[in-house]
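Q: What would this chain look like folded?
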Amino acid sequence: MTDEADHLVRRGDDVDYDPVDAADGMRKGVLVDESDGAPQFAMRRFTLDAGATVPEHTNAVEHEQYVLAGEYTVGIGDDEYTVSAGDALLIPAGVPHWYRNDGGDDAAFICCVPNGDDTIELVDAA
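A: My prediction, written as C-alpha cells:
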C-alpha cells in the first residue's frame, strides 16, 4: 500500500506475526498503520500464549485494547485485573503495566495506538 490509500481491506491470513522482544510467548501482527495510509492510528493484534508473561514496562504512547479471546491478568499501575473476551482497557502513556496468562488457552487482543514512536522501557525490578 502507499501513503495515499483511501481505504484498506486486509485479510486475516495476510497478517504476519512477529515475536515481541523481551516477552516470550507474545506475538504482534500489524493490521493497519501509517504505511497503509492511516493518518492517525495503528491497529495491532497481539497473541499471548498459555503460560506466557510480559514483564512490567511503560510505553511512550497511550494504548487502547480490546480482548478478543482467552483470559489473562494485566497489571496497570498498582492495580491488577483479570480480563477476558469483550473487555476493553485504556493504558495511559508512561503507566507501568504487565501481562500474565495463567490459563490453559492462548489469548488475543487488539491494541490501537497513535502512529509514531512507541518507545518501550522495561521497569527495573530492583
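The first strand starts at residue 17 and ends at 19.
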